[in-house]
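OP here, attaching both records as promised.
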Amino acid sequence: MATKFKIEKFNGSNFSLWKLKMKAILRKDNCLAAISERPADFEDNAKWNEMDENAIANLYLSLADGVLSSIEEKKTAKEIWDHLGKLYEAKSLHNKIFLKRKLYTLRMAESTSVTEHINAMNTLFSQLTSLSYKIESQERLELRFKVYRIRMINSSSIDK
C-alpha cells in the first residue's frame, strides 16, 4: 500500500518551503528527474513520459487554483517547475534585503509560543538560503538564543 502525503496547496506565498516539500513528494514518487533536463543517455521514451506525467499530476494537485491557472499552457514538468521559479522565486537584491530586514527585526509577540517564533525564524532562514544567502550556524544560534533570553527575562519580570 502506498503512503499518501498531503501538503498545503501553493497559493503564491512561501515558495521555498513548498518547493522543498514538493521535491520530497516527487522523489518519493520516483519522478524528481522530470523537473530537470532530460539526460542525454535516457533512451526509454515511455519511461520518461510516464515520469513526466506523474510529476505534472503531482504539481497540478499541489497548486491552488489561482497559481494553477498560470501554468496551464506548460506541457512538461520542467516547464512548469521553471515557470513557477521565475514567478515566485525572486532572487533580486531587493528581496534578499527585505528578508534579511524581516529576520533581524523579527520580534516575538507575547501571545506567540517560542516554537511558533522559531518556526517563523526557520522559514526566513529557508527563504534566504533559497536565494543563495548563507547564514552561518553561529549566527543562527545567536538569533535563536536572543529569543530564549528575551523570553526568560520577560517571564522572570512577570514572576516578580
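Record two, same layout:
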Amino acid sequence: MSAQLGIHSKLNSAPRPKGGWGGRLSTEGIYRVSGNKSEMESLQRQFDQDHNLDLAEKDFTVNTVAGAMKSFFSELPDPLVPYNMQIDLVEAHSEYRRPGLGHT
C-alpha cells in the first residue's frame, strides 16, 4: 500500500454507500477486533493495483479496512511517528485530554 492512503478523506468526501455508513466512522475499538484475513489481503491487492480505490464502492467491514491499515503501518521500514518524537506526542496528547483544554 502507498503511504498516501487518503482513506479518511476518501470516506469523508465519498457519497454515502447504500444503507449509509452504518456507524463505521464512529466505531470504537476498530483495531482491537481483527478483520477477515482474506478480505484484508484482497483489499491490499486491490489497493496495490489502484491507489485511487474508492472504499465507498466496496463492501469491506470497518475492521477489515482498519486491519489492512494496521498491517500496512507495521510493515513500514520506519515508524510512522519517529522514535525521537514519540514521547512529545504522548505528552501533547495528555495535555489535550486535560479537562478544559480539549476532549475529555
